[in-house]
Queue: 4 jobs
Job 1
Amino acid sequence: MSTVQFVLDGQAIEAQDGQTILKAAEAAGVYIPHLCAFKDLIPHGSCRVCSVRVNGRIQAACVQTVTAGAVVESETPEILEFRRNIIDMLFAEGNHFCMFCEKSGNCELQALAYRFGITSPRYDYLNPDRDIDMSHPDVYLDRNRCILCGRCVRVSQEVDHKTIFQFVGRGHEKRLQVNGTCLADTELSATDEAVAACPVGALMPKRVGYAIPVGQRAFDAAPIGADVDARKGGAA
Amino acid sequence: MTPRESKTRTITIEPLTRVEGHGKVSIHMNQQHEVEYARLHIVEFRGFERFIVGRPYWEIPVIVQRLCGICPVSHHLAAAKAMDRIVGGEMLTPTAEKMRRLMHYGQIFQSHALHFFHLSSPDLLFGTDGTAASGFEAPVEKRHVLAVAAEHPELATQAVMMRRFGQEVIFATAGKKIHGTGAIPGGVNKNLSIAERDRLLAEIDQMLVWTRGALGIAQSYTMDHLVELIPFGSFDSNHLSIVRADDGALDLYDGVLRAIDKDGHRIVDGIDYQRYLEVVNEEVRPWSYMKFPFLKSLGPEHGWYRVGPLARVNNCTFIPTDEAEAARKEFMALTKGRPNNITMCYHWARMIELLHAIEVIRDLLHDPDLQGADLVVQGPRREEAVGVIEAPRGTLFHHYRVDANDAVTMCNLIVSTTNNNEPMNRAVTKVAKDHFSGKAEITEGLMNYIEVAVRAYDPCLSCATHAQGRLSLEVQLVDAAGEVVAFRKA
């Protein structure tokens, strides 16, 4: 596969032709925050947390492929503020109670907030009236915490090869729906990759709770993206 | 105090300081300007029982502890004990039970130290010079912990360090100093590492020395001021707590329900707290959001009871640690072995428990079970369970139902301060009658008498209801016509 060169925050990066900016940056040891992007799923571009400025235009790094000679800005004050606003709005839009959420410490949204230094809300909470689906014997769906990233929709289809989740509604009424009246009606299994893929505490295996003590959770020791940051440090 | 142009006056007290949460006291006078009765109103509403409905049961020990920032461990553990039964795991492993006990006694230690030094010591250190006339009318600028720090810096240092130690115990067992996650249904999520144990053991001897000192202050203060303290806000009452199942010893983590009357006769004893509804009922009165619990067998008029340190020390057959047991015997000698019904003796009893807590912590830290790896047990599921614990302020009931889908369908909480509702009302009434009746002027200093009486119970009004914003308690004086003639609000 041929390679192309582009510039990321003043640094020349070599990438594979057709690679997304997000993947190319990570390969080069540059972390670009993201939520809806997940492993090798088909890019979705819905959360916009990975926004970068490409040749003067804001694009989602998870869907935008690199082009030869492109100038990409990622860690500029403007882009950082842009991303921070998106994260702030995700908190305001749902009902995110980190203080008792069992995903706390393992939650990518919370971890991003810490990485961005968000300690208090910037926007008024919308306090939407959302439900919790406890019907499934082994998995529960708490829509209060859903950020509509679509990971479960795509992982279920692309990896688990099931058709369980889909979005319904538009705009602020958009919500995650399941293929049936409730989660128990679906063919979801607790071992499905879709369950493990949820970045927040929306789709959770039951009866796990707080089994991992504080101090040993995914983001207790190092912030999100530290693994990518470390690659760069190692390379340097 | 704001005089009015009529035969009536308005005095405002807000907040009743150095208590947790919001509340209001109204003092009702007859036409002869004598106090007829007083009421402690709790004016906020606690919604926890409702908004946890529908949530997964394993979340509950972590959610409900948000009732309080002072004794969250008590709610955490009471809920966890109920959820143990839901998952059929109430027979905890030795490691799990001892980790929880360590967490709980760390909580007792920090909360009792906080209450005694930070909240009540200004009353005891500055409130009286030993004469009945001086009462608790210390100048307002002295009635706070900073004044204690200025005049008794060694006590202030101990206060901070003792509270910190208790919080470190909680941190080592729950993962966080406030609102941890250590207790999970059927056990705990961590053991105590050797390093954690050794860090705590390094301080234990100093904590014992300071705790003996605190007990000495409370005991000598009480004995030196008996003339004032015996009648102050005092009245005969029943006493309720849990005690250790097999021998009636003081046990703050688990046991069976015991209640005695003012003379020490047992009203109920050996009752499994899963049957608490057979023993206790709650009365609703229209002027307060806080209910009034009572023993069913005696009814609401005679069945109300005290809880907390005074009730526990009165109730237990003995204290199963040497120094605290010796202190209990001296305490009981004051009333010749009969129950102590002196409201201000709560402080002394609290310091006996402080000593017991540090003795238990010391003994547990030497127990190798804390380093065990067997942390969780489970058995046949249940749909309903009760968890009861002795919180710093008294007996705490948590009652839940959970459906087959793991969702909570019902919750009932009777918190310590609620159990003490009627006694606190009685204490306020007694103080108002003794000190306000016939007075031409109700001074700011006199108003502190009300606070001193309420403070003896160490009430957590935010826990008993649910407070938002700053804590506040206002006091109003109501005349025979029902008009508010005095109101104090800081």
Job 2
Amino acid sequence: MSASTDEVAERGRTHEAPPPRRRQFTKRTSLTILAYLTPAFIFVIIFTYYPLVVGGQMAFRKWSLYDLTSTPFIGLENFTTLIANPLFSKVMLNSLVWVVASLVVQFLIGFMLALGLRKKFRFRGVYQAMIFYPWAVSGFLIGILFRWMFNSEFGVFNDMLMRTGVSAKPIPWLANPDLALVAVIVANVWYGVAFFAIMILAALQSVPHELHEAAAIDGAGRWRTLTRVTIPTIRTTLVLTVLLRVIWIFNFPDIIYGMTGGGPGNQTQIATTWMIQFTQQGDYGLASALGFIVMGVLVVFTGVYLTLLTRERKP
Amino acid sequence: MIQKDPLWVSIPRAAGLGVWALISLFPLYWILLTSFKPANQIAEYPVRYWPREFSFSNYTSLFQKSEFGAYLLNSLVVSASAAFVATTIALLSAYVLSRFHFRSKGAVMMAFLVTQMIPAFIALGPLYQMFTNLGLVDKRFGLVLVYIAMSIPFASIMLRGFFDNVPDSLEEAAMVDGASRFGALWRVIVPVMTPGIIATFIFNFVNSWNELFLAVTLINTDDRKTIPTALNGFISNFNIEWGPMSAAAVLTILPTMVLFAFASRWIVAGLTQGATKG
């Protein structure tokens, strides 16, 4: 059996001699491709794309869950209502702080962890599982866990601060307008570090050893090797990972929703938690319009970010 | 690397890794601890880092005061069915994406990736409307359908990475031996890819298990709720009962944690491959 399959495999390999046009593109092949893709398409089109398209045009309608009989077209009124809302600029500013602060800290800690994990050591697999587990927990539940730990009366964080003498009296983390945003960002950092560590570690492991050896032979120290050899080599991965995370954190209301619900007094309200609030009030028109603004911001950001970072490379 | 690290490198590194391990594990420890404290010791000051006595009272009151057994079962059935169907369907689409070169392939990948970037709340209203027309509101089956659709795109991208690692010659050999394409996929490739398939299944399972906003919108009846929907009900009450809440949190986290730990190596491989190809 094995001899004959080997032989056949050999024949199979000679068949695919010219690599770019490996297979004869027959009608039969196209039918196969179509047949294999169809089940996935049916689900994604019916349950994802169709509601998204319908939802998209709700941005230009008055659309309330409590009055589905009349959903008139109102042009850009939802957008002007949103922008005229005094909360709008605050929500945008909160979103910016939420994304930038979470991202910078996650990146720095994640990068250091990845550097620390680069070399094999005993129980490295166990260690990775230990720091990776937050990923198996929903953002919503993480919000609840941190809400408990940041509790002003019986929370463990206040207890630690008071035992160590950092603070003389309990701090009302989630009730204080200035501190609530800090607290939700702490929770988000805790959650997101593992992602950066894993992605950066994978990139680091793809750097050929010869590069490091060559740098060592040239007399480069660790710091120089890191900044002049390693980071430039994995630059593309870093740029893309950061971009994916920006999009993702911007769109990620779960932690805030579980922890503060956007409060106190909208101090932790970001664009997507605000969208949730609109949907809870049944006003899908406003929610959808806000969704468009979020997408617009992300598209513009992606364009600018990629242009800046790819142009800089060219001599 | 050839050279051995000097102490000024290895000691800070070990210390740094150790500190992060503590930070990473602490919330888990804390919620476990809270869940085993007797009701009267949860809101206690100063806080105790090791309980005076262990008690299961939070767990018993959780099951007595709420339908938590039903929530667990609902979550299990909904997530497992959605993950099973989504993984099977994605196996087919990922196979095609990995093995064939066709003109619209980029567009297909793009169509999958875009679904990952749009805020899902836009879709909630229309989905509710559609489900009302189809009679699927407040049905667990309806939730399964939405979760399948939610899981397919990323599962396809992830599985494609695993397919790319299996040489073409394997199924070509089987096909020359007279197997159909589907037969070759099913009997030759699937067995080789088992770790990747399990990892994808677990990833999908965990995502459905944790999903909140769709479930809150589509399910109303109490004994049809999944765990996140139920927890959402717990926190909407102004006073959260932290004892039963922590017990519920532990029971929600543990199953997915065990699954993730079991498959973390393959999930990491799937995620990093998927992302670099994307």
Job 3
Amino acid sequence: MISLSDIQVVFGRGTPLQKQALKKIELTIETGSFVTVIGSNGAGKSTLLGVLAGDVLPTAGRVTIGNVDVSRKPTAARAGQVARVFQDPLAGSCGALTIEENLALAAARGKVRGLMPALGSKRREFFKERIASLNLGLENRLKDRMDLLSGGQRQAVSLVMATLAGSDVLLLDEHTAALDPGMAEFVMQLTDQVVTERKLTTLMVTHSMRQALDYGDRTVMLHGGEIVLDVSGGSRKDLQVEDLIEMFRKIRGQKLDDDELLIG
Amino acid sequence: MSQIAFWGAVELGLVFAFVAIGVYLAFRILDFPDLTVDGSFPLGAAVAAVLIISGLDPWLSTAVAMVAGAAAGLVTATLNVRFKILNLLASILTMIALFSVNLRVMGKPNVALLNQDTMLSAFFGQGVPEYLVRPIFVGLLVIVAVVLVWRFLESDAGLAMRATGANSRMARAQGVNTGGQIYLGMALSNALVALGGALFAQTNGFADVTSGVGTIVVGLAAVIIGETLLGARGILLALIGCVFGSIAYRLAIQLALSSDALGLKASDLNFVTAVLVAIALILPRLRRSGGAA
């Protein structure tokens, strides 16, 4: 289980640029649930993700992941509990390393790294199997450098990397936003499959309302650093993209003409 | 070029292969432009020379020299990681300070190691001429260093260090303490450079406070020439490239300076160095654009 209690994040405290990115966030995510997070730019989505990942340490409040208080733990210290796929395909893997070296890095996430060879024959076999399940033909290119892959391929491999070592939560940061529509669809379906098969507790930030409603079992909407909508179960099933846009409009008190939000 | 001059160049190239591997670790693996080496090379020479003269076992003296080099690397890493000083600037500060430290260690600008037992003494007088013993001995140590560094960089721990240099954000997300990796890498890099310095003192019979000037350029030249010769495919090839790059660099210099047709003098060394490095940098570019055309 993951819980955020009374989380506040203030950037640039005491300066003229002081900004409260998150205001008293209360959020509890049951083990095994798949939560989608939406919100306009500056709503606090990335900050929320950062608070869970450890990139942002909250100004006040408590973060617990799997019954461990990680409030003051930096990213590297809680990596054993947190798996992650970044928005930028280049950010989640090392371009200069081979595919199998990236996989080996991820397989040891949060573990003590010793002096044994990173790529034994057993591990290679395991990696090959996992990569083959993508059906992208990458299993024969494990010795290729990561930067030879396309953005979509890299994101697909990143997803595999995120599941090699166990985790208490999987964080997806608009991980299909930088891909072409076809590849985005592929990566999203792959995500759904992986999350369902492995029963991963997942938090996915997305710009697409379509995605937010089509995937997962709970949707949270952020605005101005606060949770303004939290739906799951039956009431979520009946919710349409149009309803979400209507809510957005009401909250912002203005006409919404951001086409980006409609793109499914 | 006489045979003695040839083997002399090979020997110097092998000594500086340690510098090249150290520079490769800092520049290529950690992406840390480290000028500390201009200070840690003469530091290694100074510590080894002074300890050998004081009667300490030369192998032990050399080990202490490596520890001193590692400490110099840790100072640079601390300035960068702990106090957030820009990496290049942090290394320049350590380098400048080391000049004074080296003078303190030796007590004078120059220490001679004549008639002292060195790591090589036991191998002299066994029927092999001295001008061959030196490169063979240093070459064997280079092979040991290459194998150890190669195995390290292909281990789980080594992957963490490579990820730190290639994509530190990703490394942290994978649980790698990136600051710790910089401490470790800088210590390792400068220990190797100091080992080069200690061997330089023992093969040449002296330690000099000015011998560090330009160490970084020589190290970088070796790394770049190696990459030009062997390409950048894989860690082992890159490390072998460092060694061959270092030797090729010394041979090219020796050839340029000893060829009467060119009319170069020993004082033209720095100019020749610059031209060689420039050529090594330009060649792969020409090859690439040639292939594309």
Job 4
Amino acid sequence: MIKTRVNICGVEFKNPVIAASGTFGFGREYSDFFPLSKLGGISTKGLTLEKREGNKGIRIYETTGGLLNSIGLQNPGIDGFIREELPYLEKQDTVIIANVGGSTIEEYVKAVERLNETSIHMIELNISCPNVKEGGMAFGIKAETAYEVVSQVKKVCKKPLIVKLSPNAENIVHMAESCVKAGADGLSLVNTFSGMAIDIRLRKPVFDNIIAGLSGPCIKPIALRMVYEVSKAVNVPIIGIGGIMNYEDALEFIMAGAWAVQVGSGNFINPYISLEIIEGIESFMLEEGIEGLDQIRGVV
Amino acid sequence: MKGYRRTTVKSNVEIATNIYEMKISYPYAFLGCPGQFYMLKGWKAMDPFLARPISIADVEENTLSFLYEVRGKGTYLMSKLREGDSLELLGPLGKGFDTNVKGNIAIVAGGIGIAPMIYLLKSLNSRVDFYCGFRDQAYYIDKIKEYAKDIFISTESGSLGHKGFITDIFKAEKYNVVFTCGPLPMMKKVWDLCKGKKVYMSMENRMACGFGACLGCSIQTKDGMKRVCKEGPVFSGEEVFFCD
């Protein structure tokens, strides 16, 4: 009997495939395709204390092997989430990870305090959104600033706390160590890479913000390398993210040391991608005689 | 809803420079309402990475028609598809036109914005006036003539009909319901001419998923941010042009 189950920071996931924040809304759109209970978990669209409308101008721009986005944390705010979305998510029998963004430490702390009293299972602190001025990303570059926000949040947080790292950090291993020292119970990596595109006819950047976040299969090898390096350096569970498009990609991350993976941009081009990845992992385990994921986790 | 379905191309013809009409075999019960769209992917592997949102031009039994303009890599690759080639599509998606309208109705289309209007024209309960503007070459005229009460044509080059914009000859005062699709400045002009009337407009935007998850196509409306792919692509004029 194979077991795809995995326990991360005391939270039981029925399988290691989680929908990545910002690519899955609050699940509703995908429930038209399949029961959300099939997923290991769902990381919500990035939530901020107050409702946000997001960025103006072009928000999505395709590039070879991926896409650039500049959505800018459009979300209903913590209260809107608790009122409108959480009651629905609660019924889905899957792990709910609240992804929390912010512009100031106070904002992060207040948002987490509000979520403490709800039914969410876990918090993923987004210190790495590139699309909001002074928002998240500022905390995701320097290990010292990240330490500050994570330790302040940890003081009030009553849920298991995962910190989502930016690949744009000055040094991803130092960043990871710093977050763990500040009290992170786990880490997820990576968020999008800073990128840009130029409209050559207009001779102007495509995005109003100039810089946007790059995701998709084009980032996978770099994300994988970062997960590998971080998993060797820290002793907390890691969730691997970055351009995962099939079960082989997911297994690479697990063998590099990830306890679970998040699937992001792939959801856009195939809403069933996570289910296909779950099935692929199960068949691989059967073929290879692997009984539990711990047998292959971090084997590389 | 099913995910992407693989099906085959029946025909793919260039009906004007860079404008293609593609017919696709689609042997399923529900093909979609006027104004709805599909995400189309006519290439293998992942380059281009995203599928392309294309509105339904027409439906016949087991056949979907799409009218599209070659604008970039995706539509270029689409234009190279031949009879029997396979492609993947997801849909129908979005909220279409309200066809249950009464009164004096007009359709105003600009350029490739004509695409969703033929199916709409066929689906309305009565024959209505059709205004269509083009840059130079006109297309789909015969098909429109078959179903429209009157047809009014403009070209910027003067090659056919009125020389100039379609909004120059659009007699807004004759109608109380107007459907429009085309460049935003044209639709804005239609809205300005139609103050107080019911105006339905079909919007377009870049989208990654087409089913409401990415928020890439969100636009500002009177009632906050709305997704072109989910709450749209058809919006009422006052929802979009709420500022004035």
